[in-house]
Amino acid sequence: MNTTDAVTFWDGVHAARTVQDPRPNARLTEVVTGLPPGDALDLGCGAGGDALWLAERGWRVTAVDVSAVAVDRLAGLAGDRLTVERHDLRESFPRGRFDLICAHYLHTPLELDRTAVLRSAARALRPGGRLLIVDHGSAAPWSWNQEARFPGPREIAGDLGLDPAKWTIVRADSPRRTATGPGGQTAEVTDHVLLVRRNHRRDAPPPRTGNSEAEVLRGFLDYLRTSVAAKVDGAPEPSVRSAAVPSGTNLLGLLNHLTFVERAMFLGEEVGDWQATFRADAADSVADVVARYREAVERANDVLDGCPDLGAPVRPGRAPSVRWALTHLIEETGRHAGHADILRELIDGSTGR
Ligand SMILES: C[S@@+](CC[C@H](N)C(=O)[O-])C[C@H]1O[C@@H](n2cnc3c(N)ncnc32)[C@H](O)[C@@H]1O
Fold first, then answer.
1. How far is the CA of 45 from the centre of ligand 1 (A)?
2. In angstroms, rounded to a whole number, what is the distance separating the alpha carbons of residues 93 and 74?
3. How far is the CA of 64 from the centre of ligand 1 (A)?
4. DSSP 8-class letter at 181
5. How many CA atoms, within 13 angstroms, populate the side-chain half-sphere of residue 252?
6. Closest CA to 27 of 184, 168, 190, 145
7. Where does the Methyltransferase domain lie (predicted)?
8. Nearest residue to 307 (alpha-carbon basis) of 295, 319, 289, 291
9. DSSP E strand boundaries for 186-284
10. Domains of the chain: which residue ranges?
């Protein structure tokens, strides 16, 4: 199955249905009422009842569907009240980070790896953001799909394989409701409802260190190093390397720079152009840059383990004392960790130490 098949099929379905005044789904209104508005994404928006209802309540909505008929019709109806994009979710996923993503009855007789789409959705949530998946738990008498058996909410959650440290299952149940068919007829149906929330990262408290000067200095430096690496780890492309301020400072470049600082200070490596270190090599992934920083830190700590005297030079020759080197690295890492906090929040709303 390719995009043309999906467009042809769903264009046919939507062209045959004219919904003058699309209404929101019951589970959406139930879950969203009372939430503060933010950025919302509606996957497989169809006639757009959910997207329009959200926009009326102050949400900034992006509504997505594979069908050009559905997308054009909704764009005409909504004007500038919301953004409508055509995506075949098997091939592309809308850009951005969202506080709410909903997928109501994202069912299709054509091939669709729903798990992959819903995993992308979970990853596109901001911290605190919610993913609402509502599926048919039973077929209404007028449904085109009488034979299908849809997995329950716990099964869907299992397929998504979400790390419980990062996502919380807020709701997984199968309530019943009275549905109204295209001819105005009614029937009792079951919905499968799964609501997942992306957790906020917990703040790591200041480190418990030993009492000696070396233990305090090294404990706080390691705390900052861990924090700045975690801030960059998993940050999305391409924003992780895009300049966020006029100076060109970017999140990945900051960690790349700190790698050179560690190596220069503790391993004695020469750096010809410090400014260039603020830009990571295009060939390096985020994981590469993070791994290289962690490796530089490990090697730096090996050097420090061999330096029992804080007053002694950190390396042979004309080098600053260990005390000065540690204090400078705390200052340098702390300064850039603060920059990284702001840049990461600008990218996807993630906060926390
Ligand atoms: C059963 S309808 C549900 C529509 C709407 N969410 C609702 O609750 O009324 C499924 C929707 O998913 C859309 N869809 C199907 N396959 C898709 C794909 N591969 N990418 C994007 N949208 C798709 C269809 O065009 C259709 O609008």
1. 6
2. 19
3. 9
4. -
5. 23
6. 190
7. 41-129
8. 319
9. 186-198
10. 3-198, 213-348
Residue 276 CA to residue 224 CA, distance in Å, equals 23
The number of the ligand 1 atom at minimal distance from the alpha carbon of 134 is: 8
DSSP, res 314: S
Token pair of 67 as six digits:
């069908």
CATH fold of the domain at 213-348 = Four Helix Bundle (Hemerythrin (Met), subunit A) (1.20.120)
Residues 6+ apart with CB under 8 A from 335: none
Ligand 1 pocket test, pick from 3, 66, 192 with the greatest ligand atom count within 8 Å of Cβ, gives 66
Give 236 Cα–ligand 1 centroid separation in angstroms. Answer: 27
Task: Answer yes or no: is the C-beta of 74 below 6 A from any ligand 1 atom.
Answer: no
Mean pLDDT by 10 residues, the chain (353 residues): 78 87 93 93 97 97 97 94 96 93 93 94 92 93 78 94 89 93 88 94 85 96 96 89 92 98 96 96 95 96 92 90 98 98 86 79
Burial class (CB in 10 A: 0-12, 13-18, 19+), 18: exposed
* Residues 6 or more apart whose Cβ sits within 8 Å of residue 334: 224
CATH superfamily of 3-198: Vaccinia Virus protein VP39 (3.40.50.150)
Q: Is the CB of 66 under 6 A from ligand 1?
A: yes
Measured in angstroms, how far is the CA atom of residue 111 from the centroid of ligand 1? 13
